[in-house]
Amino acid sequence: MTKIKMIILFLLSFQFGYSQEKEVSFDTNYIKTNDGKTTIEINEVQELIYTIFSLTKNGDNPNIINKETAYYKVVQENFKPFFQHEIVLAFDKLLEENIVNFILLPGNAYGFRFDENKIVATNVYKFPAKGIGKYELKENPIINYISLLEDFANKSNFRKFYKENKSYYLSLKKDYEKFAEIAIQKKWIESKFDTRINSYRVLTSPLLGSINATHTFEDNDFKEILLFLPTIKNDETKSDLYKKMLNIRIIFTEIDHNYVGPVSEKYKEKINSIFNQRSIWVDESNKGTQHYPNPIKLFDEYLTWSLYTLYAFDHFEKESVEFKEIMNNLNEIMVEKRGFIKFKEFNLFLLEQYKTNNEIKVEKLYPMLLEWSEKQNKL
Fold it and tell me: Which residues of the chain have pLDDT under 70?
């Protein structure tokens, strides 16, 4: 498996790096406007970034850029004449330096907007994407490239293109409303955790490949999740129920990281003592498992995916063909493709405990789940 594919498939949730520069600023007006809201957005400056990525050599990979749509073909027809523009070459070098720049550049672009032909700061998200793992940015890279981004946008008539495709973007947002049910997910998750998050923002793009990422930001007693997600998978050969279950799974397993993390920290010592025996829990020949380098990240990935099973148990018909298919798919992905070799047993044990009391808070399940996990180390 190539390095690019490895990161795309397994870098499913990440924590942005830290520096002294403030990440966000939520003022009273922003809070009033967004409190209690779930927003689906195809942001204009982010779409500019993805468009430029689609022209780069290092972005020419279906796992990074979604090349399976008519929209991609139209993007190439419109912008291919500018593939030698200085910003395209600069971004190509950044992707070559580290592929996680495919996440960090659009992540930081969310802090900017167009004002006529100029790109200006929103002063809300100031430096949200500082790094992933050991790779950390010292300053917001968008600031350094604003003049080149403006030049590319102006010469290529990007803003005109973006406006002409707004009806298409709207259809993608409607797909989210139909197949994602994010507000319902939020209600269920917050019935299972004490954590409360004020606002969800889904940032998507028809050019986005298999990247999923999330982080919670807090300022002025207001918490907001940013979810970087591909557009809805809409396989016409599948039933609407299956499509709904699949898309919810993709989204849910990102959202719940923001709730699981704080609870796992309370049990960190116990988790460390159990999941440091990595060979029992992951197939270490599967290079993707390297993106979960410590016990708590490993445990959290097990749990966040298993929690989807509990959600599905509460919301979908257990005897349906779709339910059985999606559960088989879940186990296959985690065990065979991702190398989490104990996932099927872990998942089943958690579900059996939940069946006895489906009103229970997830934190109450931790002791019995960790006790079971400890026993696996002794088998």
Answer: 1-21
